[in-house]
């Protein structure tokens, strides 16, 4: 039943997403218990113009 | 003032969204009180490649 | 699989929460289809000192 | 380390986003302390068909 | 209508929160337009045992 | 820079949280690249009266 939300910069491949959710689900079950089927993971691909660190959008960095 | 966020798989029609927000607003006012105008609902259409259950992305299921 | 997050001011009773989640689950299944078991709802009770509208915390309103 | 999420109707320009994140970062450091580099801000551009107030989607308003 | 969520380490005073929401509302209206009344801000006070950076909970740092 | 939010039922120990954030950070760096220091994880402990599956609060299940 644990629910994971992952916000990451856009551009990751499906292969990376597949591996990431498989590994996080495995780790979650290992540490918290429960069944894999009860682990939901939602990914948000964030555009560089929508993420700022230190007051500067990542789309503005060179 | 209650604020609802709904995450659902992409592909729902505008008609479904219209009906869903109307019904949820009605139910919210009925149970919690307050005015309909104070109920905000935000929908996120999640791509199948961005939602995993049981360690497998929904885009990978047949 | 739709997931609902509800943010509401603290102070609602368990009876209100029970009714609200039952009704939202019913409405969700009616409009979007799927099984009730696939509908998750998470409630956040927000303290009045943590919610601002118009630049003023609700704890500061008389 | 404070993390800000901003949900706003789609259609804002990059110039508005640049100014908004710069100002919020400045205000955050001024009030909470810490370094600008520790302030992250994530923006979500919400489509009018995905935001409802008072039970009506903003895409349905004239 | 823009909605802000702020996640910050627990321990901030009401005075800091009051100033922060007033300033963010002012900046939001200045940059995005709209009325102050349409700006909602929700704060989450995060416990040090619930925030990790670099794989270490902040409650474990000396 | 990826940011993880984990919602899980209340009651987990600090030891479980320590292990979980260490493992998720390791997996994240392994799959997505970047430095461990850029991985933030925020945990929300959800009360059983605030989580519903299938229209029933977990506090109401026996």
Automatic annotation (TrEMBL), chains A, B, C, D, E, F:
Transmembrane segments: none annotated. GO terms for molecular function: isomerase activity. The keyword Coiled coil does not apply. Keywords: Isomerase. The keyword Isomerase applies. Residues 5-58 form the 4-oxalocrotonate tautomerase-like domain. Coiled coil: none annotated. InterPro entries: 4-OT-like_dom, Tautomerase/MIF_sf. Belongs to the 4-oxalocrotonate tautomerase family. This is 4-oxalocrotonate tautomerase.
């Amino acid at each position: 039943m644990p629910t994971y939300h992952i916000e990451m910069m856009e551009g990751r491949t499906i292969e990376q997403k597949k591996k990431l959710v498989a590994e996080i689900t495995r780790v979650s079950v290992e540490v918290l218990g429960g069944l894999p089927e009860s682990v939901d993971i939602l990914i948000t691909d964030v555009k560089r113009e929508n993420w700022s660190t230190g007051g500067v959008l990542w789309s503005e960095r060179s």
